[in-house]
Amino acid sequence: MSACSRPDWPETVATPLTRLRAERPRVHVLTNFVAMNVSANALLALGAVPSMTFRADTVADFVCSARALVVNLGMLDPEREAAIGQAVPAASALGLPWVLDPVKVERSGPRRDLALRLLRMRPAVLRANAAEVETLAGLKGLEGAERLAREFDCVVALTGATDIVTDGEQTVRLAGGSPLMDRVTAMGCAASAVVGAFLAVERDACGAALAALASFAAAGGIAAGRARGPGSFEPELLDALFALEPGQIMEKVEFR
Amino acid sequence: MSACSRPDWPETVATPLTRLRAERPRVHVLTNFVAMNVSANALLALGAVPSMTFRADTVADFVCSARALVVNLGMLDPEREAAIGQAVPAASALGLPWVLDPVKVERSGPRRDLALRLLRMRPAVLRANAAEVETLAGLKGLEGAERLAREFDCVVALTGATDIVTDGEQTVRLAGGSPLMDRVTAMGCAASAVVGAFLAVERDACGAALAALASFAAAGGIAAGRARGPGSFEPELLDALFALEPGQIMEKVEFR
Amino acid sequence: MSACSRPDWPETVATPLTRLRAERPRVHVLTNFVAMNVSANALLALGAVPSMTFRADTVADFVCSARALVVNLGMLDPEREAAIGQAVPAASALGLPWVLDPVKVERSGPRRDLALRLLRMRPAVLRANAAEVETLAGLKGLEGAERLAREFDCVVALTGATDIVTDGEQTVRLAGGSPLMDRVTAMGCAASAVVGAFLAVERDACGAALAALASFAAAGGIAAGRARGPGSFEPELLDALFALEPGQIMEKVEFR
Asked: Which amino acids does the record list as binding ATP (chains A, B, C) (predicted)?
């Protein structure tokens, strides 16, 4: 029974956050150039240790000494695509969980096809927005997310004004965060990296996705209360992730 | 008659800024690695929606669903150069306006030659600094800018302590901004991206360049008043772009 | 007699900082994608003028018009590796000093081998952390740093809670900075870039490394006193580097 069907939120959220800070797991993140810096900083703020090499002939060395992998398709260049082809089988062989973020598949047919091939390689979590889920599922919103979760036997984390986490059977909704997040680049990519960090310490993929999105949304809510706009929002978000207490999550995020 | 010869500034500046926020146009930006994050954030702060893929075999898909293109030659690698070779003809075929930013052509002969070849492909706006204009025109300052505008039938936006926008016949000067901008990387690149965003909603290239540089300079002036140095300047600039009112532009920027 | 053996700190630190601001030297930085933006901003804040092109067929043009070179192996891709192969001989031929930052050599055998090959090409300074020094020297801590300095006839700057600068015979320790620096990505890479900037104006490699690490640590200490967490730390660090006075260095950093 996954965490999606047992909503003891304080426990679901607090335990992996505490473990993340105590264990400081290595997470290898294959992501786009715009998202690299803020994703690395989000992981460091939470206590994880990121690496980001995307060279095909060395990426397996980095994956093998990490505890989770993040695969983000934004701005995909041939070198990173080749690295994904090495990293995903390396992670699978070791039983490492991995996250897929199918950035902007609605704008490129070849990228959509690659995302579908990667889904067949069993990511633990697919983290996507509404347009990406619709493109991959052929159905909108929750229905699309549930279809993808069932077809590919993964957890789908569909983020937006309200976030949805579903294993295809049970679904949890999280309300929180801030509209300012749409005005800062790579916030979705950073959220995917954070899902990877939680997967490193929590093997129940529903629990990891919930804890990650709840932590990110809570920090976003705290940051929005302190920021004057999207520029000051990003440093405030990192400060909030660094100092985040489980109690703040329960206060800032509504689970439904 | 271009906007350079009819200086009804409030109208020239206010209308495209309002349209940018209302229409949220997609802008495809081919830029260097240092400039990607801040350029994306500047566009998002103003309301545009950036994409930045530079893979040669997918860039045309992204350009075709965008309303303007930005071509920046900083740190040009072979993959992005190949992408430029796909993106510019795709933009031209669709009648999409594009901006050329010939970063550091004074430091590399091959890059200067590429910039000259691209100028023959009819960018709507060339956005450059003094050293770049001099290298491309063989003449300094306003004379160089006017020569390039006439020779390549484009608008030239020469930025510096005072910005110049010229169509080769009429010239407008803008004074504003802040010397701190020289101490923050990629400010010129971000200004070029902002010109692209204004071109997406304002087809008069003089008007778009004026509105873009005036908005950027006004936000820079506001940010400089709030920042303690170049580190706090960047988030303040993004906050100021996000909240910018046409009235602030008239107050912070002097048109001559 | 190198600066490591004559500890007249105010002079050692103040003179190159003043020269850096007055001369505004160009520094070419071959670094990883995560570190580019913050490294460029750290150099600009201090007064240096960075360039970062890593294309193999143009990098020599940039090196030849620069006064120092920085070679960072983080996220090393084939294009940047080829550029290093052009840039280091170009720098050597011109007598330009260069810094080597062997990022994460403990995680990849091929990268460790490359770092050792580059050490034989005579960098002025090796800037590394404890794990990297141990991997390259086969010995831990100060012993490892001294062995590398003697074997490769370079200055080794080993950074951590306390920084060590050694020429293999004489050693100086600097205590300062902030534990928050471990929670912000690319701080070590930015420190290496700053060493490059000081080498551009101070040819005694011990003196340049000491002045660079002392400046960086002092700015870090000032920033930590103002920041709420790792997000606000980075803009505060850049503001502090911009405004740094020699007197603050003597106050914030302890030399032993």
From this structure: 127, 159
Q: Tell whether residue C186 is among the known ligand binding residues.
A: yes
Residue B224 forms contact with A (CB below 8 Å): no
Pairing of strands C254-255, A98-101: unpaired
Report yes or no: A72 and B25 within 8 Å, Cβ to Cβ.
no
Q: Do residues B177 and B221 touch, judged by C-beta distance below 8 A?
A: yes
C109 and chain A: CB distance < 8 Å anywhere?
yes
Q: Is C22 on the interface with B (CB under 8 A)?
A: no
Q: Is A209 exposed, middle or buried (0-12, 13-18, 19+ CB in 10 A)?
A: buried
The interface predicted TM-score of the complex, written ipTM, equals 0.96
User: How far apart (Å, rounded) are the C-alpha atoms in residues C87 and C63?
Assistant: 6
CA separation for the pair B196, C226 (Å, rounded): 37
Does B57 reach chain A within 8 Å, measured CB to CB?
Answer: yes
Binary contact (B185, C40; C-beta < 8 A): yes
Whether residue B120 lies within 8 A of chain C, CB to CB, comes out as no
Nearest residue in chain A measured CA to CA from B64:
A107
Instruction: Answer whether B65's CB lies under 8 Å from A107's CB.
Output: yes
What 8-state DSSP symbol labels residue C107? G
Architecture in CATH for domain C3-255? 3-Layer(aba) Sandwich (3.40)
**Mean pLDDT of the region C108-130:** 97
CB contact under 8 A, C75 and A65: no
Chain A nearest CA to C231, separation (Å): 4
Residue C5: is its pLDDT beyond 80? no
| pLDDT tens-digit map of A103-148 | 999 999 999 999 999 999 999 999 999 999 999 999 999 999 999 9
Q: Which of B74, B182, B235 sits opposite C235 (nearest CB)?
A: B235
The region, left, alpha or beta by phi > 0 then psi within -120 to 50, assigned to residue B24 is: left
Residue C171 binned pLDDT confidence (cut-offs 50, 70, 90): very high
**Parallel, antiparallel, or unpaired: how do β-strands B68-72 and B98-101 relate?**
parallel
Asked whether the beta carbons of residue B229 and residue C237 sit closer than 8 angstroms, the reply is: no
Distance between CA A118 and CA A122 in Å, rounded?
Answer: 7
CA angle, residues B241, A244, A234, in degrees to nearest 5: 15
Q: What is the pLDDT of residue B216?
A: 97
Q: Taking CB atoms and an 8 Å cutoff, what residues of chain C touch A50?
A: 185
Strands (DSSP E) contained in A40-81 are 49-51, 68-72
Question: Token digits for A91?
Answer: 């992670």
Sheet of strand C98-101: strand arrangement = C49-51, C26-30, C68-72, C98-101, C125-128, C155-158, C162-166, C171-175, C254-255
Instruction: Quick: pLDDT tens for C8-29.
Output: 777 888 999 999 999 999 999 9
Return the structure tokens found at C23. 């001369």
**Which of C34, C183, C230 is opposite residue A52, by nearest beta carbon?**
C34
Q: B145-178: b or e for each residue (b if 16 or more CB lie within 10 Å)?
A: bbbbbeebebbbbbbeeebbbbbbebbbebebbb
**Using one digit for the tens of pLDDT, what is the confidence trace for B17-70?**
999 999 999 999 999 999 999 999 999 999 999 999 999 999 999 999 999 999
The residue in chain C having the minimum alpha-carbon distance to the alpha carbon of residue A52 is: C75
Q: pLDDT tens, B81-99?
A: 999 999 999 999 999 999 9
| Interval C102-120 mean pLDDT | 97
| Domains of chain C by residue range | 3-255
Check whether C159 is labelled as a binding-site residue.
yes
C54 touching chain B per CB within 8 A: yes
What is the structure's pLDDT at B137? Answer: 98
Residues A56 and A83: beta-carbon distance below 8 Å: yes
**Chain B nearest CA to A2, separation (Å):** 36
The size of the A-B interface in CB pairs under 8 A is 82
C-alpha B102/C-alpha B80 separation (Å) is 14
Check residue B186 and give left, alpha or beta (phi > 0: left; psi -120 to 50: alpha): left
